[in-house]
Design a protein that fits this description.
This protein is mainly α and 103 residues long. The chain is built from 3 helices and no strands.
């Protein structure tokens, strides 16, 4: 009886966490786009830096769309890869905004 409850709770958690992760990805991508837009507005990003960052953002979005098309949802491996790419891109945005090349 207890095992059945645990299995039910775990499976419910997994079912609910997949859409939450997708929502987090979308929020994260939106925040990163906002950070790029801020860099353009305040002049901390050069046109070349902006183009490079936007190109990488588009690659990440395409990879996410491709992963979702090939099987319905994202596997743990695909989630980890997208998370790694978003972490890397976030760092690149920070460095580009603070390197002084845009001003």
């Amino acid at each position: 009886m207890k095992l059945a409850r645990v299995v039910t709770i775990v499976s419910l958690g997994l079912t609910l966490s997949a859409p939450a992760f997708a929502q987090n990805l979308n929020k994260r991508e939106a925040r990163q786009q906002h950070r790029i837009a801020e860099g353009i507005e305040n002049g901390s990003l050069s046109p070349k830096e902006t183009a490079r960052l936007e190109k990488q953002e588009a690659r990440i979005k395409e990879l996410q769309a491709k992963d979702r098309r090939s099987g319905g949802g994202l596997s743990d491996k695909e989630r980890d890869e997208l998370n790694r790419l978003l972490n890397s891109e976030s760092h690149k945005i920070y460095v580009a905004k603070h390197d002084g090349a845009g001003k």
